[in-house]
Amino acid sequence: MALPVANKPFYTYDEYLALDEADKEVRYEYHHGEVFAMSGTTKVHNRIVRNLANLLDDHFLPRGYEVWQEQIKVEAKAKERYYYPDLVVSRSKRDQENTIMVQDPVLIGEVLSDGKCNIELKLASYASIPTLKAFLMVSLHEYLMHLYERRAGKWWYQAVFGKEQPLHLDCFNLSLPVAAVYKNFRLSTRTGQGNEVTEGFAR
Predict the structure, then answer these.
(1) Which of 111, 149, 153, 178 is most deeply buried (CB count within 10 A of its CB)?
(2) Where is the Putative restriction endonuclease domain (predicted)?
């Protein structure tokens, strides 16, 4: 969950950078001068991130990519937009040499907790990154995964409900078994458990 930093309405990029680097306990995201403090995670959130990271490691590491979790920031637009996704994948040389930031992500993943704010804002920002091929979102309260995938210059949307259908990332020749993403996860009783795949063009 990201919360606006209330003591200052506008931060320059240099002020944001100084704040983010000085505070080792809190991560800060930056969007056109506004700074958001990232709150702590939960055990369930952490478990799903870890499950997904393990699956991505198995697929991407042998192919020369790197997979990073949570503490690595993504530059969506230089000096204007910076975020801390739960997972990010890249194989560019400058990303492998940079110890704190990814500038050329090919895949970004977010686990959606209660109150996860600004996801629509992030979606628009992530979509503007030239190297990005896919943006993956995983629900914390039901067996539900969303995928935005770039195909021939356009973004396509796909959602998988339930644990039986895998989620296909065609751009990476990768199928993610939903059951493995939610391994050791207890579904909230307030959600449904149907199995369905929805796909279409994201306008």
Answers:
(1) 111
(2) 14-178
